[in-house]
Amino acid sequence: MEYVSPIDERVRDPEPLAARTKGIEGKTVALLDISKNRSAEFLDRLDHHLRSVGATTRRFRKPAFSRPASGDLIEAVARCDLAVEALAD
Q1: 32: closest CA among 74, 71, 2, 1?
Q2: What's 76's DSSP letter?
Q3: Short-list 18, 85, 27, 87, CA closest to 53
Q4: How many Å apart are CA 8 and CA 31, to the nearest integer?
Q5: Do residues 28 and 78 touch, judged by C-beta distance below 8 A?
Q6: Are 21 and 82 in contact (CB under 8 A)?
Q7: pLDDT tens digits along 49-78
Q8: Mapping DSSP to helix (H, G, I), strand (E, B) and coil, where does residue 42 land?
Q9: Per-residue pLDDT tens for 25-55?
Q10: How far apart are the first and last CA of the chain?
Q11: What is the pTM of this model?
């Protein structure tokens, strides 16, 4: 029997942080629901707040939280200026 470690020991170079935006007024914010309990409720409240301060929102939803997002979904979210992902219940 061969033991295979589940730990990825490869080392990646650090990625630089994305530049911070000066504000969200006039920006398009992607709100991604990953299909966990109450994530839609959280995003509803955030959506209302973002719109009240001048942002435009676009809603997206993964069909199942346990599966990776499709390439089309990733591309759609990437076309927005900012993104928020509702991760947990």
Answers
A1: 74
A2: H
A3: 27
A4: 30
A5: no
A6: yes
A7: 999 999 999 999 999 988 899 999 999 999
A8: helix
A9: 999 999 999 999 888 899 999 999 999 999 9
A10: 40
A11: 0.77
